[in-house]
Specification:
mainly alpha; Growth Hormone, Chain: A
Length: 447
């Protein structure tokens, strides 16, 4: 009788999910405290607050590719351990910042520390999850992100009723250190390095992958043609959808509590709870997106349907729901519509992670870093832009802008080809339209 495969891959996904949650707890808590911090620091306008909310994303964007290279060279085990320690230090520095510019510097440091989380995590999913569960792994990563975002919204709003924002942020700096110690002791970068995996699980992980792709996944690094990341037209639409999704999401992760406080007359704690409801929609979207993407791939064998089709449909639905919520006066009903919209938007998240793995060969951290950089450059600009538009034209104009962005993102997804060979020549029409559930031998669909 054949032995049952071990389940270490799920523990690996669990480690990554917790890392994502802790990182989002630190980065998102500042949005709930924005109005309190603005008053405490004596800031003159929402535009200045926007600079604080956006500072993290400048370094987070520009360090995506360098951090991806670092994580591939030194492995996820060492990389994520260091990242978690340094983002915890940055969180404590945020709590201790006495003036505006020191606070900006602390947020810039946190951006550097967190830049490599998702390039490293995506590469680990590539090594540890079988083709039939790849999007589930990406979906669990998205669940971790939104769990941290929900915790930040609910916990920060509650804590600010009892303690200062500085004390709350100091508390949030502790869990990352504890996680880093446990992670370094227990985690291993690849299945063949873990004494807890058996041969059956290692065979399951590589099932359905051509031999040369299995060999590529075992490489320590891959040579990257950096010009491809700029010149390849197939990547432009991947960048485009990421820019639109990221800019749309950051409104909910930054200005949304203030938007609710000023347009629906709710308290700080209530705005945090309602923001948590939106993040609940995002959490479900990330989980269901992973399940849906894997199910469609198993059902149709078509990578375009399971990646691009999901992404385009999801973002279009999000745009429609934002427009529906535009004129709804009741806070709860409006937030429920927006939560459903964010749920649809997040369905596209696992599809994006999976598509990047599909096209990247042995260079997943670098390509994911480049894609994430494009989105986070937009995110870095968005909070200040939203603050300016809110000051000059009002919050209705802000909602209209984000509905438009999601429609543009849906359009971009229509032209994303998850079967393109990013570093091995152009994909063919046959590859693009293939309905075969088995990856073709030279398609770089799994590495």
């Amino acid at each position: 009788m054949a032995a049952t495969p071990t389940s270490v891959r799920y523990r690996v996904a669990g480690w990554l999910m917790v890392a994502a949650a802790l990182s989002y707890l630190c980065r998102n808590s500042i949005s709930v405290a924005e109005s309190t911090m603005r008053a405490d620091l004596g800031l003159a306008s929402k535009t200045e607050s926007g600079y604080i909310l956006g500072a993290f994303f400048w370094t987070y964007a520009f360090f995506q590719v360098p951090a991806g290279i670092f994580s591939q060279r030194y492995g996820t085990r060492l990389s994520l351990t260091l990242f978690a320690i340094f983002w915890s230090i940055a969180m404590f520095a945020t709590a201790a910042s006495p003036i505006f510019w020191v606070l900006i510097a602390a947020q810039l440091l946190m951006g550097i520390a967190q830049a490599g989380i998702f390039p490293a995590s995506t590469d680990t999913i590539n090594h540890w999850m079988p083709m039939s569960q790849r999007s589930l792994g990406c979906g669990l990563l998205a669940v971790g992100m939104q769990s941290g975002a929900i915790l930040a919204s609910v916990l920060t709003g509650y804590l600010l009723e009892w303690i200062t924002w500085r004390q709350a942020f100091a508390l949030f700096s502790i869990p990352g250190i504890l996680w880093a110690i446990a992670f370094y002791v227990r985690f291993r970068d690849k299945p063949e390095l873990s004494p807890l995996t058996n041969e059956e699980e290692r065979r399951l992980i590589t099932e359905g992958r051509p031999p040369e792709q299995v060999a590529a996944a075992r490489k320590t690094s891959g040579k990257t043609d950096w010009g491809v990341l700029v010149r390849h037209p197939g990547l432009w639409m991947v960048y485009g959808q990421q820019i639109c999704r990221s800019a749309g999401y950051i409104f909910f992760a930054s200005w949304f509590p203030t938007y609710l406080q000023e347009t629906r007359n709710v308290s700080i704690s209530t705005s945090g709870l309602l923001q948590g409801l939106v993040f609940g929609g995002a959490l479900l979207g990330g989980l269901f997106g992973g399940l849906l993407t894997d199910w469609l791939w198993r059902r149709t064998g078509n990578l375009w349907i399971s990646r691009s089709g999901v992404g385009a449909s999801a973002l279009a639905a999000c745009g429609v729901l934002i427009l529906m919520a535009w004129k709804v006066e009741h806070p709860l009903f409006a937030v429920l519509l927006l939560s459903l919209g964010v749920l649809f938007a997040m369905l596209a998240g696992p599809a994006m992670f999976s598509a990047v793995i599909d096209i990247s060969g042995p260079n997943v951290p670098q390509v994911l870093g480049a894609v994430n950089m494009s989105g986070n450059l937009a995110v870095a600009v968005t909070p200040a832009v939203v603050g300016y538009i809110a000051d000059k034209a009002g919050w209705d104009s802000v909602l209209a802008l984000f509905a438009l962005l999601y429609f543009i993102g849906a359009f971009c997804w229509l032209f994303v080809n998850p079967r393109m060979q990013l570093f091995a020549g152009k994909s063919t029409a046959a590859e693009f339209d293939s309905g075969s559930p088995e990856p073709i031998a030279n398609s770089s669909t799994a590495t």
